[in-house]
């Protein structure tokens, strides 16, 4: 990891650039072609693309009931207990996010309401290219079920032998997923956006994924389907002062670096001594990882910054808008108060980000690439839409009618005004 000491503020944006951005245009073109093929040829395109990108010849993308049932015998009881515990925590946190209906009488006789309604049919993408992220099933299916979505469809890449990891299948059944398909990448997102002969069209597509998946969501989100947000290659920023333990900080940085070669880990610290120790710890801990090669590639585009103050640390965090921000300082709450842009914040020396990845209760599907400036991570509300209602009495219309007539007249919209006037004429 390269270290920068007191980088000038006007350089921050450049030094905090996300990895491989220059490849975005190539990825966009490739994904556009995939989308076109799925729109045109449906299941036939899925078969060809699974062969091309996943190296597997599939007759059908459907995961059968027999496959799902067989998964039960393939998980240890201890893993099942861990997944159940995580599910409970995620359900507790997301269940508490239910919003009460809003009802306000804005002026006498004019009542406005807002009701939350579940999105009927949702499509969940669960990454499986380099690791079968069954924890993502929990993060998407648990809130979908609590929200009351009727159809919960899940797509995940097939493995080379044409199967899906039993952990994904078992967790999907636990969380009420209605149908599962073995399709990955941009083609899975396109299939859920348009529908194919086998895969039903979803009203909204959710889930994280690599840059192909994320590009497909962004392109289709403009034209064919609603999406949660861009949730691409994982990233973490750690803010640390002299009270932080280098061993902990290095472990946190590596925990996201191991996701993929295009992941990024950034340390911002007020302590030059800590910066040195963390760099050494990263090298040491890296050697012991089973995904050391992947993490090492991510570290090539990762950075350490030494800055002057807590205020500068927070400013750099706001400039980066990290998916995950870990604050390992003497007073993390005070630093967090300065944070405006982050997907999810982890406070103190004993709050590793991986706890949020799996089991604490918060959602791990979070905005990346700086999108935390405007998007929230997945939450219960992501699976709902709001419908407003209003009801006016004759008195209410008398109270508000003239205001509307004046505004409609000023916009030159006579018919709008008349819809009020014809009624007022009957109840003067
Ligand atoms: N932001 C978040 O909330 C979040 C959460 C979890 C995981 N992630 C990220 O999800 C990603 C998972 O990536 P992954 O690759 O392991 O799995 P993935 O399931 O996202 O992607 C695998 C699929 O990509 C497609 N693909 C691979 N190479 C391709 C190519 N050259 N052209 C076209 N398509 C191609 C294949 O169809 C394959 O099935 C990681 O980057 C991880 O960091 C992000
Ligand atoms: N850190 C990922 C989100 O960027 C989520 C995840 C799943 N499994 C492990 N981690
Ligand atoms: Zn993770």
Describe this structure as you would to a colleague.
By secondary structure, the protein is an alpha/beta fold. It folds into 3 domains: 23-228, 3-Layer(aba) Sandwich (Rossmann fold), CATH 3.40.50; 233-376, Nitrogenase molybdenum iron protein domain (Rossmann fold), CATH 3.40.50; 393-427, Single alpha-helices involved in coiled-coils or other helix-helix interfaces, CATH 1.20.5. The chain contains 17 helices and 14 strands. The strands form 3 sheets. It has a 6-stranded parallel beta sheet, with helices on both faces. A 5-stranded parallel beta sheet has the order 6-5-4-7-8, sandwiched between helices. Strands 2-3-14 form a 3-stranded antiparallel beta sheet. The chain is globular. The protein starts with a strand and ends with a helix. The mean pLDDT is 97.
């Amino acid at each position: 990891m390269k270290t920068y000491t007191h980088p000038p503020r006007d350089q921050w944006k450049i030094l905090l650039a996300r990895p491989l951005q220059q490849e975005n245009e190539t990825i966009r073109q490739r994904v556009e072609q995939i989308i076109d093929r799925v729109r045109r040829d449906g299941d036939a395109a899925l078969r060809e693309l699974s062969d091309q990108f996943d190296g597997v010849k599939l007759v059908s993308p459907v995961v059968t009931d027999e496959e799902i049932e067989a998964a039960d015998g393939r998980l240890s009881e201890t893993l099942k207990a861990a997944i159940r515990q995580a599910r409970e925590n995620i359900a507790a946190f997301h269940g508490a996010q239910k919003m009460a209906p809003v009802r306000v009488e804005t002026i006498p006789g004019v009542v406005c309401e807002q009701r939350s309604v579940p999105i009927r049919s949702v499509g969940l993408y669960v990454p499986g290219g380099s690791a079968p992220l069954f924890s993502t099933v929990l993060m998407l299916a648990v809130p979908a079920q609590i929200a009351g979505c009727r159809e919960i469809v899940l797509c995940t890449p097939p493995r080379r032998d044409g199967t899906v990891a039993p952990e994904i299948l078992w967790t999907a059944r636990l969380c009420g997923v209605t149908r599962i398909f073995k399709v990955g990448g941009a083609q899975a997102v396109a299939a859920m956006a348009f529908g194919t002969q086998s895969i039903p069209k979803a009203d909204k597509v959710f889930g994280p994924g690599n840059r192909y998946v994320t590009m497909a969501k962004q392109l289709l989100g403009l034209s064919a389907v609603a999406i949660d947000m861009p949730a691409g290659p994982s990233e973490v920023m750690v803010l640390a002062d002299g009270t932080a333990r280098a061993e902990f900080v290095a472990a946190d940085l590596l925990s996201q670096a191991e996701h993929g070669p295009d992941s990024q880990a950034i340390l911002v610290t007020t302590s030059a001594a800590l910066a040195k120790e963390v760099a050494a710890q990263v090298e040491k801990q890296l050697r012991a990882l089973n995904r050391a090669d992947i993490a090492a590639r991510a570290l090539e585009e990762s950075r350490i910054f030494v800055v002057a103050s807590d205020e500068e640390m927070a400013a750099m965090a706001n400039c980066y808008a990290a998916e995950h921000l870990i604050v390992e300082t003497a007073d993390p709450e005070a630093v967090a108060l300065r944070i405006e842009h982050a997907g999810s914040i982890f406070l103190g020396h004993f709050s590793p980000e991986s706890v949020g990845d799996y089991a604490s209760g918060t959602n791990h599907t979070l905005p990346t690439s700086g999108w935390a400036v405007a998007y929230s991570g997945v939450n219960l509300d992501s699976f709902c839409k709001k419908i407003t209602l209003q009801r006016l009495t004759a008195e209410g219309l008398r109270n508000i009618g003239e205001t509307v007539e004046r505004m409609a007249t000023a916009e030159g919209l006579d018919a709008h005004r008349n819809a009020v006037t014809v009624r007022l004429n009957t109840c003067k």
